[in-house]
Each structure stands twice: as C-alpha cells, then as structure tokens.
Predict the structure.
Amino acid sequence: MIRLSSHAGGSLTIRAMETEIEVRCGRDRPTTPRLLRELRTLEAMTAIFCRDRHGGEVLCESCEALMAYAAKRLAVCPFGEDKPVCAKCQIHCYGPRQREEVRTIMRYAGPRMTLRHPLLALGHVLDKRYPAPPKPSAPRVRDR
C-alpha cells in the first residue's frame, strides 16, 4: 500500500511498505504534462518488469530506487517540454548502471505495453518519431 502525505513548503512524503521517500515538488518530480506522461510510461514499464521478474504486487526496493532516480532526472531535464525520448537524446543524464537497468526494463516491458497500457505505448511510439532538438547551451557566466 502506498500512502501520500503533503507538507508545507511543497514537499510530499511517499510511503511504500517500509520505504519512505521525501519528494520536493519541482526538483524530484517533473511538473510538465509531457514529462509526467514519460514518467508514467516508465513507471508502467517498471511495474510490468518488476512484477514478472522480481515477483510481488508492489515495486521492489531496487526498482523503487530506480524510479526515484528517473523522476529526479526528468525533473531537471534541460530540454523541458521539448525532451526527446532517451534513445535519441544527445545528453545522457543517467549514470551507466541506471541507463543499462532502464534499457533492460524497456526491452522486456516494451512489447507488453501495447496490451497492458496501449495509450502510453502509443504516446511513446509517437514521441520517438520526432527528431531530437539541438543540445541546449548552458547560460554563460560573465567575468568580472
């Protein structure tokens, strides 16, 4: 069972089994509709993978940690609403271990998404058709 509780200052506490995660809105979770849909797609894929490979009805600790990591990375994506799918992105914001874990999850759950979550799967396929935008430049700091 997952319990949510909000706090003053815009933070949220998520409790799943014995795990408690403090989420700061805007820094730990995406806020735009496009990024939230991408996170929901990844959460659905991870749930399929974890249920079939790790057993159980809720995410295991490692899958839960990967989802928290992915949510943080999406929240600070420099592309924002124009973010391409990760396979076409010029910036690799995941660490090598997490990137390989997500690839494994997507390879397994991708074909199963069309039956279990057809709208999310269709949205992801449509997102893959768009080219990646140019890499955003970092704001310049002036010398004094």
Remarks:
- The first strand starts at residue 2 and ends at 6.
- The mean pLDDT is 80.
